[in-house]
Structure formats: C-alpha cells, structure tokens
Specification:
The structure is a homodimer.
Chain A: H1 6-13, H2 19-38, H3 40-51, H4 60-76, E1 80-84, E2 92-97, E3 105-111, E4 130-134, E5 137-141, H5 149-164, E6 172-178, H6 188-193, H7 196-199, E7 203-206, E8 218-220, E9 222-223, E10 225-234, E11 240-241, H8 242-245, H9 252-261, H10 284-292, H11 297-303, H12 316-319, E12 324-333, E13 342-343, E14 346-355, H13 361-374, E15 378-380, H14 386-391, E16 395-400, E17 408-409, H15 415-428, E18 432-434, H16 443-450, E19 454-456, E20 472-474, H17 475-489
Parallel strand pairs in A: 3-6, 3-7, 7-19, 8-18, 15-16
Antiparallel strand pairs in A: 1-2, 2-6, 4-5, 5-20, 9-17, 10-14, 10-16, 11-13, 12-14
Amino acid sequence: MRKFPGMMAVALLAWPVGLLQAQSGRQAADAAAAYTTAHRAELTAGFERLLAMPNVAADPAGLQANAQYLLAALKARGASAQLLTVPGAPAVVYGELRRPGATHTIVFYAHYDGQPVTASEWTTPPFQPTLKTVDGEQRVFARSAGDDKAAIFAQLTALDALRAAGMEPQANLRFVWEGEEEAGSPHLEQILMAHRDLVHGDVWLICDGPVDQSGRQTVVFGARGDTGLEITVYGPQHGLHSGHYGNWAPNPAMMLAQLLAAMEDADGHVLIPHFYDGIAPLSALEKQALADAPDNEAMLRRKFWLGRTDGGGRHLLELLNLPSLNINGMAAAQVGARATNVIPAMAVADLDLRLVVGEDWRVQQQRVVDFIASRGYFVTDHEPTQAERTGHARVAWVKREGNSYNAVRTPMDLPMAQEVIAAVKAARGQVVLLPTMGGSVPLGAMERAAKTRTVTVPIANFDDNQHTANENLRLQNLWNGVGTMAALETMP
Amino acid sequence: MRKFPGMMAVALLAWPVGLLQAQSGRQAADAAAAYTTAHRAELTAGFERLLAMPNVAADPAGLQANAQYLLAALKARGASAQLLTVPGAPAVVYGELRRPGATHTIVFYAHYDGQPVTASEWTTPPFQPTLKTVDGEQRVFARSAGDDKAAIFAQLTALDALRAAGMEPQANLRFVWEGEEEAGSPHLEQILMAHRDLVHGDVWLICDGPVDQSGRQTVVFGARGDTGLEITVYGPQHGLHSGHYGNWAPNPAMMLAQLLAAMEDADGHVLIPHFYDGIAPLSALEKQALADAPDNEAMLRRKFWLGRTDGGGRHLLELLNLPSLNINGMAAAQVGARATNVIPAMAVADLDLRLVVGEDWRVQQQRVVDFIASRGYFVTDHEPTQAERTGHARVAWVKREGNSYNAVRTPMDLPMAQEVIAAVKAARGQVVLLPTMGGSVPLGAMERAAKTRTVTVPIANFDDNQHTANENLRLQNLWNGVGTMAALETMP
C-alpha cells in the first residue's frame, strides 16, 4: 500500500481547529434537527421510496435504477453530478458541490447496493419497506435500511436542512456512492483511478456500518480487511445408501466437520499456523480509546441470547482488532423433511476471513490452504476430476475469493482525524472513538486511488440485522445521522 | 424380541429338501426366462407404468393410487386380495393364493413407497421412467425402480410366467406390500398384528435391497436396525454480521463441526462411549459366508471414485456387521451464490444410526445424546427458549427418530433357511450368502407380528442409486429376479 503523501499531511496540519468550527457544527446539527422534526412524515416516505428499489448484485437493472434515482437527487440539489462507469460493473454515483474560495475538499462515501436476500426468511418483503415499533421506537424494515442507504439519505437530507436554514458548506463537498460494495468492490479502485481528480479530497468520510452498541455516535479510524474461501470436500461420486455403504464409504460431511473443527479451538481461537502473524500493534492512543469505550458485553449477550462468547472473556471491541475466521454457511445433502439416509457426495463450507493491519489477504488465504493440505488433502483450484478423486485419499476444491482487500487504520492523532472528531462532537456531544470497525470497507482502494486518508462515521443502529433477514433502521438513528452529516458538511 | 416358537421349528425341520425342489426351482426359472424373453417390450412398458405413479410419503393420494393399482394386479391373478389399513397410514396391499392341500405358507414382502425426491437433482424426472443404456446394458431410471417396485413387479410377473408354463405353486403364497417402509414403517407392526392370521407364514421372504456388487444373486439372513437423530445447535438469536461480531459471537456451524468431528476418528471409527457395546458375535457359519463372498473392494472404489475407505482396511461386508453413524445432511445458513458474510443463528445435522444384533435403538440414541451432553451441551427435546439459550454456554436441540427398529439375524443353519438357499441356487446357480444386509428393513416387527422368521432375497443391481437422485434398475436384474421369484413361488 502506498504511503500517505507528505504534501497532503502538511496541508492537513495547517487546517484550523477551533471555536468557529464547533459553533458551525452545533448550528448545522440544530438546523438538521429542526428540519427533520418539521418534515418527518415526508422524509420517512422519501426514505421508503429509496428502500423500495431492489439493489442486489443479481439484479443489474435494479442497481441501475437506484443509480439514476440518486443521480437525479444530487442534480436536484445543485450538484454537478454524473455516473462513473466501467463495463460490467454498477456505476459509481458521483456529485460535487463546489464552494468558491474553499481551501478543502471533503468526500462522502457510501454505497447503494445491498446484500443478497433470501425472501422466505423475511417477516415482511425485503423491498417493501415496513414501519414497525420495536421497544417503543419506530424502525423501518427493508434491505439496505441500515447498510447503507441510510447514510446516503442522511447526506442528501442534511443538504436540504442546511439550505432551509440558510447555511452553506465551507469546503468543496464530493459524494461517491458505490454500487458493488457488498460484492467486494471489485471495480471501485479502477473507477476511482480513472477519475482521480474528481474523487480526490483532503479526507474521505466513510459513512457505512453501525454506531456503537451503546447507541452513542461513533467515529472509527479503520476497518478490517476481508477475504474468503469456499471449500468443497468429496465423498463418493454420487450419494450412496447409508445402510449399504455406511462404515465404509467416507462421509464428506464428517470429513468437512473434522477439517473445520481443527481450524479453531472451542473458544474461537484460530489454530491455523501463522494466522495471527504480523499484526501491527495498537498505539497508546488506540488502546486508550478502547479502554474508554462503553462496556456493552452484558447487554449484547442478553440481546443475542448468548450463553457465552468466544475469545476467552476478552471484550468484543478488543477482539475486533484481531483477524477472524467465520463459517458463513455449510451444506451437505439435505436436512429436515427432505433428508434421506444417504452418504452425501460432497460437502461445502463458505469461509469469511477478516484481517487487521499488518496482514495480507493473499497470505491469509494461503495459510488456510496450507492448513487444509497439512490435514492430508489434495487441494485443487478446479472441480476435481475422476482421476484426482480416485487417486487421493482426501480431495478439497478451494475457491479463493478474488474481490478481497487488506485492513486500513488511520492514526487518531493525524490533524484531519482530530478535525472530524471535533465536528462530530460539536453535533452529537459524547462520541465513541474506535481504532477499527469489525466490518470491512475497501478503504485501501479508496486511499490509493483518491490519494487521501479515510475516517468512518457510521449512523445505523447496531442491531439493524445488516447482511441478514429483516434488516432495519431505527428512525431516530436516521434523524441523528442527518445532524451528524450536516455538521460534517459544514466543516471548514 | 420373542423367541421363535418351538412348534414351527419342528414343522420346518420336517420340510423336505431335495432333488424334487431343485428340479421345480430350475423348471420355474426356465419358465420365467422363456416368458420374459417372449414378452420383453410389454413387460418393460408395464414396469414403467408402475414406476410412473408417484409414491412418496408427502403425497398420500399418490400412495393410495399405487395401492389400488397393485390390489387390482393381485386380483387379476386370481388372488384373494384386500387393503389392510389403519387410520393415517398408507395401506398394506395384501393378497393370497391358496393351494388346496398345501402344508406350508410362504409370504413375500416388498414395499411400494419410495424415498423423497429432490427433482432438481435428477437428470430425468423421477416419475417419468426413462430407458438409458449404461455400460452397454439397458436400465430404467425412476424413483423406486430398484427400491422396491422391481421386487413387486417380479413377483407378479413370476406368477404370469408360471401360469403360461402350466406350473402351479406348491405352497400357499401370500403377498404383503407395505406403503411406508421409507418412512420407517411406523404402522407396519400395528397392521400386521391386526391381521395375524392373514400374514402368518412358515417363512417371510423379504424382497428388498440390492444383490451383491459382483452381480451374483444374494440371499441375506438379516438386516441392520435403524434409528436417527436431528441435532440443532445455536449461535446468536438471529444471524449477525461476520465482521462486526466475528471472533466474539459463537458460530454454530463451527460448534456443530466440532461436535460432529469428535464423534468419529479420521478412519470412521465411532468414538462415542459404548457405541459398540453388546454386539452379538458372528457364528462360524456366518464368518465362513463372509470369507466366501466375492471381494468387490477395488471395483467399488473405482466405481465410486474413492481414494480411500473408512474402517482401517476392513472389507465392506465385514463393516456392515458393525453399527454405523452417518451424517445424512448438514446445514447452516447458505453456501454458493446465496452465501452472505454472516454468523448463522443455528446449524443442523441429520444423523443416521445403523444397528446390529445385540444393540437397542433407544440405548444407541441415548449414547449419542449422552455424548453431546458430555461435550458441554445443554440438551433439550424441544426448541430451546430464550432463557435456555441465554442460560447455557452450549445448547443442542435433539430430535429422536421414533420410527426406529433393531437389527435381526436369522441363523443360516435353520432348516427353512437352508430351503430358501436350495431354491435360489436351483434357479440361479452360484449364490452369495450374507449374514446381514447393510440397509434396514423392519424385520423385527414382521417376525413379532407374523410369528415367523425372515430371509431376504433382493434382486436390484447394487448401483441403482436407491435413496438418492437418478435411481435406476438394470433390466437384466428384473428378468433374473422374475426367475428367482418363480423358483421361490414354487417352493414346496
């Protein structure tokens, strides 16, 4: 990864932090609160219109409709806007509001695509936004309600609120809204590199992910990297009767269970050799931030019905600063009413690997592959042939996720980092500072292509069911988010 | 299990074995061969008509249509036939051909129901019988082609062949065709007990399962028992983002993998305490039969693309005389294109347990449950509540299969066993004798209710894909099977 350019660091050091900004941040947040209170019904309906537009990777036409809708929304607010495209990828929606005489440029990143949906798992249809009361508060249920259309809607609404209050941005504002973040952002770097002048900024504000579980506004200075592997292990060429061949024909579900089981101890510690090698240690400031963060452990365990947690008693926020190995899904033959007495022909597991600063995703993938081989497997990168399956005691087909990226962490003591903290504090009061988000955003690609550093300012509630069924946003988080965005949109 | 009644043993000892029977068996098989050769096209079409009738447990109307069709087939051949029913269960199709002056009664058992189908996994639709050439020989592909409509069709056709040759049965013949064998025969014993006089016989011939993999006709003297368990283990109350909670929220797929992995060593030997306790040893005659059986190991490994087998190098036929534990299916969240980066809420495994003589299925289930508990799980017999999940580090919901039964083995040196061997040898020449079939048939219920002993005479090819997609029957096995049935139908 490229180093942070020295020239820009000088520019950032010269950036004033002070009373003026705190005042403008506070005024902007007040303007946002007045505006969202006055227009609540209309804003809720507008958010629902955005959520009703299907936005999954399997539906390119749906993604395009979202992009056109957002392009129009930017133009309606006076932005110079366009779609940044490369063949075969959803467009990046781009807009700019130039401020004559501005000395800084602030870029707001968010994404308009959503995770795939399994509609049968949803209580209400994923693209039919539905208001429900949860713990006495209103939430809207729909795919991308929290991840990540809330951020886009808050950025747009903050512009409206500022205009309604007669306030104007001080810096040039740029908006970069991606359309394939949930697919691993395979084309983002390419699109940004093709438009470096457009997307460059003094800082990129990543508006994605949830705030701290305590509900307090959060500023995050990095994100874990992400990669993955799909592992298929093989039994007989086709399913065999479990009576006539049970005890003799190897069962691939059992083989997969034994392979996966050996990857972790009972406490979730990964046993794959070198898995934790090379991790960059936390700075004193980062450790202090973790120590200052709210202790949400007991509340989270209750909320998620957990009788224990992994990690040997360490707190969630500490564990998010370590790499992880997660089984996203596992399958062999059928369970439930469709189960039959069969020795399955194969068994599959989908693994997610999160990385922290100091690790490389290709190396981490290879560590897992080496481990599989060390367990006696002949590992292929293609569907194994009859000869390969007959010729080896154990065969695993490993598909390596290519749309992967490394972790990024911006030092909290960089001047621009301090600026963002000041603006958010002005708007929201007490703020939780975290070195790393557990989830992943392709920060490295952004930093390389836009020649900038990133700071993440999420607005969604932590319990928004993002990436699963019944995703939702607590509406109060949307109104708070408009205030936070208004403060950031009026940074000097 | 009740003892075999002494009176009947005396009757069997008095049953003549000799030249007369060998002649009639040979003549019957010759008559069958002449008949099936002369009517091949018509018989193939007739078999396809039977296979085209859907016969899965989820379709009671389909099962009833099968029963009516078979009832008519028995009546058309002069049998006194009826449906034996209890509420809520598919009927047993019953028929009798009385022979005036007969001193013995022979009962032919088969089943007309089939395993569930997952149509998408089939090359051609499961209830659209399709002829295909495999290794230069014709096979018909359809659910139940091998398991177990072939046996029913062979029994009916053998009657037609005998009549065409002017031959008649010597004993009373009874036909008992069950409709819920694939569901574990939950009502069979009840139905038989309600009609004990109808279903009693000097011997029950179980016409189900495949012949030896060498292709030779097989006579089997028992079957493994069968039971099962479904295990669900729990993670968070709903799926959680694998980034924001990975390393902290326990992953139920990993928990299940570790639980299952601990049940067996890498060679398939079950590690659950007492799993192999109480097994009745094989007799000298049974051990000799195993030693005389063909060695099909290398052929089977090639055919099934296996680079190794479980069991430490022991042969399949030896391993089938041991209990087994098989993972029928395993599932957590999604794999493939629908996988998301999620910590699943639960993970499920469906286990099949086969038993041998000397073991009780309830005890074997309990051994597995005790093992799960010994791994730190709180085991429930119901979907665990929030309080149960929050209050225990590990929770497993275990559903115990109720439709289960124990293994049965008829000694090969019983006179009636020797009679059956003589008839089959007369028809088919060299015969493979096996103490135990790997698969399961509810022999115990039959023996208790009908006060008889059982001998199994299968006719299907071993590679018939029973219990999975693309089930098929090699047509030559059907023609051979008609000969075998004709010889058995003319036993004295």
